[in-house]
Design goal:
With 224 residues, the protein is of the alpha/beta class. The protein has eight helices and seven strands. The structure holds S-adenosylmethionine. S-adenosylmethionine binds next to strand 2 and helix 6.
């Protein structure tokens, strides 16, 4: 997914520098939260992998910063957010650390990963994050979740077209699906896979090159 990296960087400096490049600023409490989160990913990964990346610099860049880049397209009125297939918490948990006003639901099928997500939420006192151990297809038809969200996200769960299909039933009318898409998926191909009467493209913006190289971008689709 990522083609450009800055190997050997100190993770704290990398986070600080990356956050500035994204036009954000972190106070002391979020900085400490990211450090604890990183330590817990490394500790839990000693037994078996939680993410495809284990070294601190990659956790910061491919986990934290790549997730924080999504904040630029969160609609101002959004409150309820669902993240499908969160894995070790990306993109939802870095966003939750910074945006305490958003209410997140994380839908994760794996028992071990959902246990990890609950552990992190307790540790970091992320009280407005709820973790569901479920498949998205099953959760999306429950009354509590169907059509209940302002924003849906899914990173690296399936082809972007399939991710949009998984996300759509969670969205209220007018709600949006935010996808991080690589150069291997042209927007025209993504749109050709979507039902045109259900989802429409509203915005597309390139991600900075340090987050995956040329062609990687954010795409925002609105539920009609
Ligand atoms: N989004 C995270 C990231 O970008 O690092 C994790 C990506 S990981 C490759 C895909 C995750 O999606 C796995 O943790 C898997 O258990 C979960 N997953 C796959 N299909 C799912 C589904 N239908 N419902 C819920 N979780 C799913």
């Amino acid at each position: 997914m990522f083609q450009s990296r800055r190997p050997g960087s100190d993770p704290d400096a990398l986070l600080e520098c990356g956050v500035m490049r994204l036009g954000l600023a972190l106070g002391a409490a979020p900085r400490a939260a990211f450090r604890r989160y990183q330590d817990e990913i490394l500790r839990w990964s000693e037994r078996s992998s939680l993410t495809g990346f284990r070294d601190p610099a990659r956790i910061v860049t491919e986990g934290f910063l790549d997730s924080l880049a999504c904040l630029s397209l969160v609609p101002p009125a959004a409150r309820r957010v669902v993240d499908i297939g969160s894995g070790a918490g990306f993109p939802a948990l870095p966003m939750a650390i910074v945006r305490r006003d958003l209410r997140f639901t994380l839908v994760e099928a794996s028992r071990r990963k959902s246990s990890f997500l609950r552990h992190i939420c307790r540790l970091l006192a992320l009280d407005d994050v709820r973790v569901l151990r479920a498949r998205a297809e099953a959760a999306a038809v429950e009354t509590e979740h169907a059509g209940a969200y302002d924003l849906a996200m899914a990173r690296a769960v399936a082809h972007p077209g399939l991710q949009a299909e998984l996300a759509e039933p969670f969205l209220r009318r007018g709600g949006v699906f935010l996808a991080q898409v690589g150069s291997s998926c042209p927007t025209s191909e993504l749109l050709s896979r979507l039902p045109p009467d259900r989802l429409a493209l509203v915005a597309e913006c390139p991600l900075p090159e340090f987050l995956g190289g040329p062609g990687r971008r954010l795409i925002l689709l609105r539920r009609l």
